[in-house]
Amino acid sequence: MGMSTTDQPWGCPNSSSNITSKPSRNSSSHPRAPVEIFLENNLPETISVRACESRMDLMRAVIIGAEGTPYHDGLFFFDIHFPDNYPSVPPMVHYHSGGLRINPNLYSSGKVCSSLLGTWNGNPREQWLPQESTMLQLLVSIQALILNQKPYFNEPAYERTKGTPSGEAYSKVYSENVYISSLRTMVYGMRKSPKHFEEFVRSHYFERAHDILKAANGYIDGAPVCSIVKGTSQVESMKFRTEVAVFMKTVVDEFVKLGVNELEDILEPPPVIHTDTSR
């Protein structure tokens, strides 16, 4: 499973550095320089950014999917381009989709639909304000508002159905499909990690492999997607449970390649459909 050619439109040609590396003196006039200093002191642990040393207009960010969402434990990569007139205008952001559509706001082409980026006409107060908006605000908004618990309702046409029986039912199915796509994202990320994040990807999945498998087993046993941290006892659809069990075999194979031990024997088998033969 390879990454599409749209996944690296602004690939850094040479080396990159962690955002904790301060900009060099001869680059301090570039609009990205104050961004680096600000992010250095404010980034949450679930977001990591690396700067391209040979291209002052480029950064690459990775966001870890939050607990309680269908994106939990996944890695989601974004390339960031700073125009010369930044911050008078917002940065340009491209999502590494791998050809998958995992959210109404994240297109398979890599487009990120956000009011802050000017790619969606939202409330004026939600749009990029040169004197107020920051790169940190943008990254946190992607994590909290886009990669959220119920992404189905990110679609404006469906937002009005939130809280209704039909809306919640469609949202549930959508989140199931998103979780499967998130597993696929994990696989292509391990097979072909974004440049300069190879060790980050390996370490992340090596450390979280057992937690990811534990959550998947919970879904296979019938827990609803997003519910592992909530303790709900509702039983999930048989189709979703089966799809998780089947695709997790591929995920486990990739974990084993990373050197994670004792995984093959603890993956739950697909659920068995019991039929009534008493009639």
Question: Could you walk me through the main structural features you see in this protein, from its secondary elements to its overall organization?
Answer:
The protein has 2 domains: 5-154, Ubiquitin Conjugating Enzyme (Roll); 158-266, no CATH class. 35% of the residues lie in helices and 10% in strands. The chain has helices at 32-42, 135-146, 156-159, 165-191, 198-220, 238-257; strands spanning 16-18, 47-52, 58-64, 75-81, 92-95. A 5-stranded antiparallel β-sheet has the order 1-2-3-4-5, sandwiched between helices. Helix 4 (165-191) runs parallel beside helix 6 (238-257). The radius of gyration is 20 Å and the shape is globular. The termini are far apart.
Strand order of the largest sheet: 1-2-3-4-5
Can you count the helices? 6
- What proportion of the residues form beta strands (DSSP E)? 5-15%
DSSP E strands, number:
5
Region (Disordered): 1-32
Keywords: Transferase, Ubl conjugation pathway
Protein name: (rape) hypothetical protein
Biased composition (Polar residues): 1-30
In short:
This protein has 279 residues and is of the alpha+beta class. Helix content is 35%, strand content 10%. The radius of gyration is 20 Å and the shape is globular.
